[in-house]
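Progress against Task 2.4 (sequence-to-structure conversion) is shown through the following example record, which the project officer requested during the mid-term review.
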Amino acid sequence: MKKILLGTSALIGAALLASAAQADDPKVTIGGCSTFEAAWTNSDNKTGEDNRAFRNDNEIHFNIAGKTDSGLGYGAEIDLQADINGGGDASPGSSAAGDTNSGITAHRTYGWVQGDNWGHLEFGSNDGVARTLKVDASNIARATGGIDGDYKYFADVNAFTGEVVSGGPNGTFNASVLRSNPNFITAPRLPVENGPADGFSTDVWGNDDKITYYTPRFQGFQLGVSYAPSLTNRGELTSRVEATSTGTAHDIWEFGANYENQFDQIGFAAGATGELGNVSNDLTTVKVNDIRAWNGGAKVSFAGFSVAGSYGDWKNSLDVDGTDAWYYTGGLAYEFGPFGASVTYLNSTDKAEGYSDKFQDVSFGVDYKLAPGLTPFAEYTWYDIDPSGNAATDSFENKGSVVIIGSELAF
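Structure tokens generated for the chain above:
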């Protein structure tokens, strides 16, 4: 379920001291979702893999909220994975049960405080502003999310193993094997929320421990900033190791600016986000570059139609000198009563001397709100993996498609 953060934040310290007043007991609400998907998939370069699969994804959300007599809001959110393998966000194609690095059963856990005049502050394991304030074509996608949807769990991943073979949510990157295989950006995400471009995107990144601040929304505008000392810190896991033989990302900053407004019958939204981070190379044999990336996008809606697009630039983040990576998105959606439909498109390039690794996909999705909280859906996604410029990587070329039919119950 996509969540849109609508507003909140400014100077915290004095407001917290002033709000130490009696408060009602915080209220606890329980929600979540239960999703079932049946998929059929095929590709030009699959080897020994079945062309059909089922997937079940269940989450339970605990939301705690209270308010003091002086007006300070406070609370927490705990999102639990309630699936058989102990985690619903395992890397696509992985057979490791619960191999999510987001906890055995928890995916996001964070606390918050907020005030009408000064904004909203979050602290814990949750997405940063680079994800919550961005605008791109996936924001209007129906069904499972289109170009940033669930097709990735069924697509054939044997076609490429990725450059940064040791990359993962622990924030380390094996510089010694960079450029040994092709590299692809497969979702409209910046490096911190996506991780190294070593395969189809997953949801195991982005929930590192951080502090995030949002301003109140004023005249349609909202600003935000997130800080994480290390991508390694996640939940109870703390690590102060600044340099390893594979490189380690630390001092991660995310910045975001978002605008939303309604002009008569025309709705408009725009977002600009950026990421900065340092990579320690003291012990590495090949330098991995720091994180320097940005994204900009916009959305216009009228009479049930919405159109959206974005451009994102990774520069050479988490890669070697001489590389450059970018992507762009576009999409069209229509909503009429309980029915919704969309088509979204992603095109990305990762370039280096002798390489030009390209990825593109287009996704068609429809859904229908059959009953309160119950939404059946269908989605078709076609993708194209195209490494070029080096004969050694020609075998990684692949085209494929995924059809998903399913339903989601949100409660």
